[in-house]
Amino acid sequence: MKTKILMVCLGNICRSPLAEGILQSKVDSEKVLVDSAGTGNYHIGKPPDPRSIAVARKNGLHIEKQRCRQFSPNDFQKFDVIYAMDNSNFNAIIDMANGQDEIVKVKRLMDEIDGPIKEVPDPYWDDDGFEKVFRLIDSACQAIATKL
Fold it and tell me: Could you give the CA distance from residue 77 to residue 79 in angstroms, rounded to a whole number?
């Protein structure tokens, strides 16, 4: 049985597509399914932000075929673990949960590693932030992959 992991940010164009691609590159696809979504509906059906695609490509990953989708309460049934990129999205996901059995599936991505940074910042308004965000997500995904 596959472990199913969902990465969630606001628009599903910057952080969560990177997290999906990074974690996929670190795990056995026969054992782990990774997907991503956004709590907002701003970019449904669109590819990731070109800057996310570029930083992924620079690091040997190809995420350009991903398409943005919105998080749905049905995702609680589909996924074993749901990682939020920041507190705002964590709270938005928790607000959609229907009981404790769904709430326990939701975690903050950066809680997977020790350190002072507890949220993956949204790089949308900061072109230079994409490289930093990639490194943060990569560290957390390495910790997840090691656990798996």
Answer: 6
For the annotated catalytic residues, the residue numbers are 9, 15, 122
Residues β-bridged to residue 52: none
What domains does the chain contain, in order, with CATH numbers?
3-147 (3.40.50.2300)
- For 52-106, write each residue's pLDDT tens digit: 999 999 999 999 999 999 999 999 999 999 999 999 999 999 999 999 999 999 9
Q: Is the pTM of this model over 0.90?
A: yes
